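User: Fold both of these, please.

Assistant: Here is the first one.
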Amino acid sequence: MIYKSVMIVVMFVLGVGLFGNVFYKASKSLKYKNDERWQLIQNKANQAIYWYQGLITIVFSIILAVDLFNPFQISLSVSNAILSAFMLLFLQHGIELISLIYFDKKL
């Protein structure tokens, strides 16, 4: 029961990050009229996403290498693996939103 409650809260937070990112980008694109400053902010936010995806790739590579040379088996259900991949995929929208807000205030 606690696991499902936590997953519902996590999904809600990820949804807020996704829709917040979409609405924030739309409102700032209209406000700044896609000038060079806004494009620079978006490029820096995209660099943060590339760093995140690279970090996730490295972490998965290390996990797979450890699993390859490990004498014991790690069991993971397909539904938990899909749920984890879904959460990691949608977390990038929240990271992009946070980096857009940060670089908008910084630049």
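And the second sequence with its predicted structure:
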Amino acid sequence: MTTIDLSDGFDVHDYRSKLKLLRQDAGSMTLANREGLECPACDRPFERLFVTDDDRVSFGDAPDGPICLARTDARLLVLTH
């Protein structure tokens, strides 16, 4: 399995064959994990990935499972399991 590497930031294009874009707006995107990528925070496979460079984000529906957070200099990643 492959763990998302954040050592040089996060570029979705590095993982585009393993992730499916579900939703995107000006500052954020939600992706589904199609290939069992592993979370950079806990090294377990995750279901969804939310990536944002916005300063503030609000979630209307909270996921049922565990949530991991990972930060790069430019982005915040929220991973649900």
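Residues 69 and 78 are 5 Å apart (CA to CA).
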